[in-house]
Amino acid sequence: MAVLGPLGAWGVLGFAAIDAAIFGMPIDAIVCGYAYANPAKLVLYALAAAVGGAAGSLVVYAIGYEGGEALLRKRMGDARYHRITARFEQREFLVMTIVSVLPPPTPFKLFVLCAGMAEMRPLRFVLSIFTGRFVRFLIEGLLVIRYGPHVIALFAEMFRHHLASVILSVVGLGLLGWWVWRISKTRSRRNALPPAQQ
C-alpha cells in the first residue's frame, strides 16, 4: 500500500484493465488492500475496478469478434455454429455476469473470447462485465473490512478445492432466478389480457 496508495482509484482502474486485457494480476488483493486501508471509499474502489475490468475485457472481446467467427464456423459447420450461438444469446448477459463474479481459477478470458466469437452486442457485454465485477469486488471488500484480509485467502482456498460445486451452485441459482422471473412475467402478461382472451 506504500507504493500503490498514492495512485488511489485511478490505480485500481488501471490494474483492473491490465488484468482483464493482457495478463492476470492480483486485482482482488489490490482492491481489498485499498478497501481495508480506507473502508469509506470501498464503493469508489469497486466501481473503479469494475470499469477497468469491463474496459480491459474489450481487448479480448475484440480478438474473438474479429477472428473467432470464421474459426468457429470452420470447426463446427454453419448449422452447429448457429445453434450454439443462438443458445448463448438467450442467456448471454446472465452467463457473462456470473462468470465475472466468480474468482480465479475461473477461465474468465476464455468466456470473454467466446462472447466476442458469438458476436454478443458490445453494450450488453460491457454492462454484464461491469455488473459482475462490481458485485464481486463489493462483496470481497465488505468481507475484508468486516473480518480482515485473511478471509479472502480462506475463501480462495475453499473455491479452489470445490470449483465445480461452486460453479454449479451459482449457475443453478442464476437459472432458478431466471425461471422465477420468466414465470412472473408470463403471469403479468396473462393478467393484462382481457378476460375473453385468458
Proportion of strand residues: under 5%
Task: Report Rg.
Answer: 19 Å
Number of helices: 9
- The gross shape turns out to be globular
Structural class: mainly alpha
Assign a percent range to the helix content.
Answer: over 70%
How many structural domains can be distinguished in the coordinates?
A: 1
| Biggest beta sheet summary | none
| Number of strand elements | 0
Terminus-to-terminus distance = 63 Å
N-to-C order of helices and strands: HHHHHHHHH
Mean pLDDT: 78
Low-confidence stretches: none
Can you lay out the helices and strands and say which pair or pack?
Layout: H1 8-21, H2 27-37, H3 42-76, H4 78-90, H5 92-101, H6 108-117, H7 122-147, H8 150-161, H9 163-192
Question: What keywords describe this structure?
Answer:
single chain; 198 residues; mainly alpha; 9 helices; 81% helix; 0% strand; globular
Notes on the structure:
With 198 residues, the protein is an all-alpha fold. The chain has one domain (5-150). 81% of the residues lie in helices and 0% in strands. It contains nine helices and no strands. The protein has helices spanning 8-21, 27-37, 42-76, 78-90, 92-101, 108-117, 122-147, 150-161, 163-192. It starts with 7 loop residues before the first helix and ends in a 6-residue tail after the last helix. The relative contact order is 0.12.
